[in-house]
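Could you help me review a protein record that somebody else here produced? Do not assume that whoever made the record got everything right. The record follows directly below this note.
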Amino acid sequence: MGVYTAELNRTGTTADIGAIEAPASSMRRIALMKAEFGIDATPADATLTWQLIRTSTANTGTSVTPQPVNPADAAAVALAKDVLTASGTEGVLLESVPLNQRATYTWVGYGDGELIIPATANAGLKLKNGASSSLGATATVTFRE
């Protein structure tokens, strides 16, 4: 099983930063191991709510090529998308973290705590700023498939 990273950027018109999802065919189970996210706009004192949410349909956005941590691994089957213009169907809220806009946050799924995306067509996990859709944001996710 390979480990991959992808940088996701929010510059679109939605609060969504980006998503990792299984494709419609050749699905694999994906485990989100780590997510780092923050605002890359001018520093200000504002409260934001970072969220990790399950999705059950495909998100619409710009494709991002996940990079293997070990260059000997094959290309990722999982899809990474940023600059989302249309959100997939949201499901269960798995993580919600209120932070100041100046803070950067790292979520890590230690041990068996990874967030799992089932090997089901278009199933995924979305990173979202639940408090504001007007600020640019960046996230780097690390996942295993």
Q: What stands out?
A: The mean pLDDT is 89. The CA atoms of residues 5 and 112 lie 19 Å apart. The radius of gyration is 14 Å.
